[in-house]
Specification:
This is ABC-type quaternary amine transporter. The protein is α+β, with helices and mostly antiparallel strands and 346 residues long. The chain is 23% helix and 37% strand. The protein has two domains: 221 residues, Rossmann fold; 109 residues, no CATH class. The chain binds adenosine-5'-triphosphate.
Length: 346
């Protein structure tokens, strides 16, 4: 078993706490993404797991082995942890084959491990003799993953491995990497500042903010039920509208809604989270509740700015439409919400 457990990890750098009481469990063979803004502590967390640095407090264990935080620390090269850096960090003077072989023991070098690892990341034998500069960015990242997987590590750490790739290559490389990780069954942590990447990567997403994990759980659950309004906004387009709660129903300028999750705590004034995908616009309704303030057409998409009811609330809504003329500045429409809302204290 290679379940990775971080317990109460704290790390100071330059006299400042960079990680504060971080607790996270990554079950054996599963994938977790850690997402946070620049400087939130993501790379520091990976460095501690890899063994490049040690925590000031807390423990890191892998299966039954205490890696850090005990009487002694297991050194990086004995941890069974592979690491893939942002730019792949391939050795430029070594071929693909030599790069993948680099971390293998003498006996493993003679085995079929190099060919297996290359095949796992879909690097064909025709590329094995090439040097890194003769590969595309996506191929370089896949070779870097093959090099990390070749020694059969228990854990692989990916530090923003797709961020240097352009959009199309990024999506295809990500799919190839996920497939290779799935086949190898290795426990994986990916750190990224890209919310979509984090939400689509694995079994668990952990949000890190100012060195603390603010929420962790299955991606669909975390997206559906962000514990704070800040997390809701961080994870994707969020409309937060004032609401009044009466008889366990949330009343907003859009109408009345079922409350899916209530995070008001002791606060009484509240706001409701609505995702743009929940909004329906009816241009023919006899009971309009919003007026179109501005429309911008970008190809098949329209960006519609609406003023809701008699409030001062404005919302900007991306709409895909086959009939762009439906939305005109000054027209009234009815906006309704499909599904329930999550509410927070204001
Ligand atoms: N050696 C160091 N000495 C002092 N402060 C450091 C050191 N290394 C990192 N920091 C600080 O620790 C904080 C967390 O850094 P870290 O690199 O872990 O963040 P990150 O979330 O990975 O950021 P990015 O997405 O920009 O790579 C930052 O504020 C950074 O300035």
């Amino acid at each position: 078993m290679s379940t990775l457990v971080l317990t109460d990890i704290t790390k100071y750098l330059g006299g400042r706490p960079v990680l504060r009481s971080v607790t996270l469990t990554v079950p054996s063979g599963s994938r977790t993404s850690v997402v946070g803004a620049s400087g939130s502590g993501k790379s520091t967390l990976l460095r501690l797991i890899a063994g490049f640095d040690i925590p000031d407090a807390g423990q890191i264990s892998l299966g039954d082995t205490l890696l850090a935080g005990g009487a002694s620390t297991v050194p990086a090269h004995r941890r069974g942890v592979g690491y893939v850096a942002q730019d792949g960090a391939l050795f430029p003077h070594l071929t693909v084959e030599q790069n993948i072989r680099f971390g293998l023991s003498r006996s493993a070098r003679r085995s079929t491990r190099v060919a297996e690892a290359a095949a796992l990341v879909a690097i064909g034998s025709n590329l094995l003799g090439r040097y890194p500069h003769e590969l595309s960015g996506g191929q370089q990242q896949r070779v870097a993953l093959a090099r990390a997987l070749a020694p059969s590590p228990q854990v692989v750490l990916l530090d923003e491995p797709f961020s240097a790739l352009d959009t199309g290559l990024r999506a295809s490389t990500r799919r190839a990497v996920i497939e290779a990780l799935e086949q190898s069954g290795v426990t994986t942590i990916l750190v990224t500042h890209d919310q979509e990447e984090a939400l689509s990567f694995g079994d668990q997403v952990a949000i890190i903010d100012g060195g603390r994990i603010s929420q962790a759980g299955p991606p669909a659950e975390v997206f559906d039920n962000p514990h704070t309004a800040d997390i809701a906004e961080f994870l994707g387009d969020a409309i937060l509208v004032p609401c009044v709660v009466r008889d366990d129903v949330a009343h907003t300028a859009f109408g009345s809604h079922v409350i899916k999750h209530d995070h008001r705590g002791s606060g009484d004034v509240s706001k409701a989270l609505v995702r743009p995908a929940q909004l329906m616009i009816d241009t023919e309704s006899p009971t309009p509740n919003a007026v179109i303030i501005d429309v911008q057409t970008i190809g098949a998409k329209q960006d519609v700015l609406l003023k809701i009811g008699s409030t001062r609330e404005m919302i900007r809504l991306p709409v895909v439409t086959a009939a762009p003329q439906s939305y005109r500045t000054g027209h009234t429409v009815q906006v309704s919400v499909v599904g329930g809302v999550v509410i927070y204290a204001s």
